[in-house]
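JOB MANIFEST
job_type = single_chain_structure
chain_count = 1
residues = 182
[input]
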Amino acid sequence: MDDRRTIAQELDAMQHLLKELEIRYEQYFAGIERREPVADRKALARKVRHFTNRHIVWTDLQFRYHGLASRFMSYCQYWDRILRLMDEGKYHRHTTKRQRPSTTTQQSVGTSASGEAERLHQQMLQARKNCGLDGEGPGPDKIASFLDNQREKIRNRYGNKPVEFDVDIHEGKPRIKVRLKS
């Protein structure tokens, strides 16, 4: 019976280490931690491998071990995929801090919606010309509906912060970029 208690305690410790490792990786991906928790990952992998060769008689503990091991392997694949994306430059850390919406009344973002859409349409035409792209691109109506959609998403995520839209050229293509006003 003592052996069963020992195995259960070791599995509890493994579960706790897995949760801590998950939190540390999320902090690393968010930019809070500067270094990847490689040593902790190796230590947990060593414990998982130790249990692989161990014969567990009790089926409930076997089931629990297999669940922990498969969850650890799934996390490893996820972490490796994110690390690969970071190495390729395709993963952008979300370091912006969420703040509470202000209690002031809602302010209209920018000037008037149609005036801003017309301004962005003109900037888009000029940017397309500078990039050597043919055609007129999206019209002022489509830009206005896009801006309304983006404002709603921004309001849900950041509250009623004032934002401004500009046309930016990225990889040879013009795009509308949003930024918070300071």
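[summary]
Confidence is low (pLDDT under 50) at residues 97-111.
The radius of gyration is 26 Å.
exit_status = 0
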